[in-house]
Amino acid sequence: xxxxxxxxxxxxxxxxxxxxxxxxxxxxxxxxxxxxxxxxxxxxxxxxxxxxxxxxxxxxxxxxxxxxxxxxxxxxxxxxxxxxxxxxxxxxxxxxxxxxxxxxxxxxxxxxxxxxxxxxxxxxxxxxxxxxxxxxxxxxxxxxxxxxxx
Length: 150
Known about the structure:
The protein is an alpha+beta fold. The protein has helices spanning 2-36, 43-75, 123-128; strands at 91-94, 97-101, 106-110, 113-118, 136-139, 142-149.
């Protein structure tokens, strides 16, 4: 099980790195577009193009900042060891899926099996935290029964 948690953690790291690279690439492209935009006789067109490129850069900087925050949070997650009470770093198996409590990275496919990486602050993360094997809870009209916590 520890091996599975380590692999899930690595998939989360890859997810965040992918988001960071995409944001960095988009920033570079927006800056290149702004640099290539030459001033024409229609000065307003030039200013509008530069402003749109700046807005795109700002949006991507915000995405990069969010990805950096995810990486910081992920670096604080301990995936080593076992616990009988669900908390950050736990792998929780329920009748409605397997959840890795770390960051919101969505569905992760590992060895042909689906796992859901969820933030401890997400609605499902909040419901899972503190729960133990055999406990149940409801979320959005769906009943969950915990079969194991690791």
